[in-house]
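Quick one:
INPUT:
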């Protein structure tokens, strides 16, 4: 498998402890930016098997705001797993994939990113396209624990300063296209944007009522094929 061969040096501790049992490609990232692969390794000491997820980002040669935002998103994801996931795992508020190897060099010429993560699906198997009421409650409990972990802390370094998909700085075309039926929203958009950035009406920056959010917390991110949290739009 190409992804595994290219990672052997960087994940030596995994390779020394286990043999590859089987692997296959699970899917492609949007717009040909990379692949998601599933990997099953067999531990040498006891023969037990472990499912892993390999995410490889090899962005196409491109330019523009959309391309730069995608690269930044992947950098944020790598930063989360490198710098912030360990504390979240230790706190035990909400289960996330454990990062075994993170390598990110997207801003250099021909750069790429590799994530090797544990697969959550054996512990949290998914359903075929639907969630029960109990599962919805479990998902909201997970989200509450995630928010509580970062509640009113300064924006963690390396994540988006402004989370979710409301990024007015990169959405001016959409802003100009807002129709008259949403005139009130358009009039308030710049004020909302500043508040989401943490600025009070006085101009003072505040962490009050702010936390890190997962900006794409939808069904496929909760019960996704990827065995981790999906594309992370993490920010304050």
């Amino acid at each position: 498998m190409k992804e595994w061969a290219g990672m052997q040096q960087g994940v030596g501790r995994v390779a020394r402890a286990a043999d590859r049992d089987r692997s296959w490609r699970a899917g492609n990232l949007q717009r040909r930016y990379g692949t998601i692969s599933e990997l099953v390794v067999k531990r040498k000491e006891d023969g037990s098997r472990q499912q892993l997820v390999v995410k490889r980002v090899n962005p196409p040669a491109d330019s523009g705001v959309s391309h730069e935002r995608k690269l930044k998103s992947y950098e944020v994801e790598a930063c989360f797993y490198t710098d912030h996931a360990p504390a979240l795992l230790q706190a035990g508020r909400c289960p996330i994939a454990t990062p075994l190897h993170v390598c990110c060099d997207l801003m250099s010429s021909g750069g790429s990113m590799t994530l090797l993560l544990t697969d959550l699906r054996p512990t949290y198997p998914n359903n075929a396209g639907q969630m029960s009421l109990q599962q919805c409650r479990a998902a909201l409990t997970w989200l509450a624990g995630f928010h509580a972990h970062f509640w009113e802390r300064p924006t963690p370094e390396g994540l988006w300063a402004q989370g979710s998909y409301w990024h007015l700085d990169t959405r001016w075309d959409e802003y100009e296209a807002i129709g008259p039926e949403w005139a009130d929203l358009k009039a308030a958009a710049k004020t909302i944007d500043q508040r989401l950035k943490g600025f009070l009406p006085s101009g003072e920056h505040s962490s009050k009522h702010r936390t890190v959010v997962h900006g794409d917390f939808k069904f496929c991110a909760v019960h996704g094929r990827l065995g981790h949290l999906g594309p992370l739009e993490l920010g304050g």
